[in-house]
Amino acid sequence: MTTGDLSSPETGRDYDDSQALPKLKLLTTIRLGLFQMGLGMMSVMVFGVLNRVLIRELAVPSTIATVILALTLFVAPARVIFGQLSDTKPLFGYHRTGYIWLGATGLVINALVAVQVMWQLGASLKLAGWTLTTYGWAGLLGLIFALYGLSVSMCSTPFATLLVDITDEEDRSRVVAVEWSMLIGGTIIGAITIGVLLKSLEINATIAQVQVQIDRLFVIIPAIVLLLTVVGTWGVEKKYSRFTSRVSTPHQGSHLSLGRALDILTASRQTQLFFTFLVVMTLGLFIQDPILETYGGDVFNLPVGKTATLNAYWGGGTLLGLSAAGFWFIPRLGKQKTVRLGCMLVAASMLWLIVSGFTHNPVFLQLALLLFGICSGLVTTGAITMMLDLTMPETAGTFIGAWGLSQALAKGLATVFGGVALDIGKLIAPNIVFAYGFVFSLQALAMIIAVKLLDRVNVREFQSTAKDTIKAAIAADVD
């Protein structure tokens, strides 16, 4: 379960929109969202299937498996490079589309290679244990996952930038909302599709049977994703992009470096508090991510296809939560109270996840994930809107980019923490439900800490005292 790339280019520049260009129509917006849908499908296939197979079917320790998976997130600083390249060096005649196509192709190729290397790792582990050869296969798999993460950055960052290129300020939020919803929708569709394609696999299926079905899955889904990418982006940049009319040359101060991001995140007391909250909140949302499917297999005896469909319950709940937050909770409670409520409800849903394990009833697990998705939607919507309050129009792109970078790195840490916590839980707990309960308890604790940090965030203090500090940090970087 994952979310998409929220980073964007600098939105505070002065643009020259003298050239009249057509407005983006709803149908084109939806067509463009096919790319996001494809990313959601790939995410479920890679992180909703391979993590389960690595840990449960191939018996790779969860610490090692989650470190391998987290490498896709730890390469997130590369998005800075691809963002700058798409600004300055057109590819195949386009500033954004060429990088999207090349990144999507890399995404598919690395996924195909990763699954084959995974089988070699499993065979070596079964035959000889943790020998030098086995560690070599694990290292190679980690490298391929890092390349997969680079491919995600290559296509998703220029795509986020394209959304700014093809929209004006007044219609940008509508377009982003559609694209975000289609990303979540892609995880739901992907989960259901995977469940159908792997329906014939039983809980006690042999490795050979699992390999045949998953190899087929890793051909069908990537082919669909490539098709969605081309159909979704074809001709959009050429017809709608305002990039060349807005800037004659890229603004040298508009690029976000890792050092610059750190300067902005620590520029004032309020930014330190808010971004610390975001990191802890991200841990609270994603610690369970790498081990949820194995939870379904170990505790509820669900086969691979059934555990993949668990993402549909989370995704459906997230869509409900996003809508509920935007149309009901935030207008009535306010942003900060909505986030606070969402964090507390996430902690409660973790307790439900633990209790459902003792029932061994998949329905209770599905309901817990639906609740968790709704609560995640509340937290995400409230946090994003709070973030917009805690910035300035002239530095919005830089600030959002810094948040996106910190979120990706925090998700990487959460992935590793989830695997390490599960291994620790297995060592100290009397049974498997308690082992997973240890992981979910840490997640609930992170959310409670996040609430304590959130209570110290003061938007008015930021607006009255922090802006000059942030401007100085950005100016120093530009100089």
How is this structure best described in words?
By secondary structure, the chain is mostly helical. The chain has two domains: 25-240, MFS general substrate transporter like domains (Growth Hormone, Chain: A); 256-479, Growth Hormone, Chain: A (Up-down Bundle), CATH 1.20.1250. The protein is 79% helix and 0% strand. The protein has 19 helices and no strands. It has helices at 26-57, 62-74, 78-88, 97-128, 132-165, 169-197, 207-233, 236-240, 243-246, 258-265, 269-286, 292-300, 304-308, 310-333, 335-359, 362-389, 396-428, 432-454, 459-478. Helix 14 (310-333) crosses helix 16. The model is unreliable at 1-18 and 248-254 (pLDDT under 50).
Give a short synopsis of this structure:
This protein is mainly α.
Topology at a glance:
Elements: H1 26-57, H2 62-74, H3 78-88, H4 97-128, H5 132-165, H6 169-197, H7 207-233, H8 236-240, H9 243-246, H10 258-265, H11 269-286, H12 292-300, H13 304-308, H14 310-333, H15 335-359, H16 362-389, H17 396-428, H18 432-454, H19 459-478
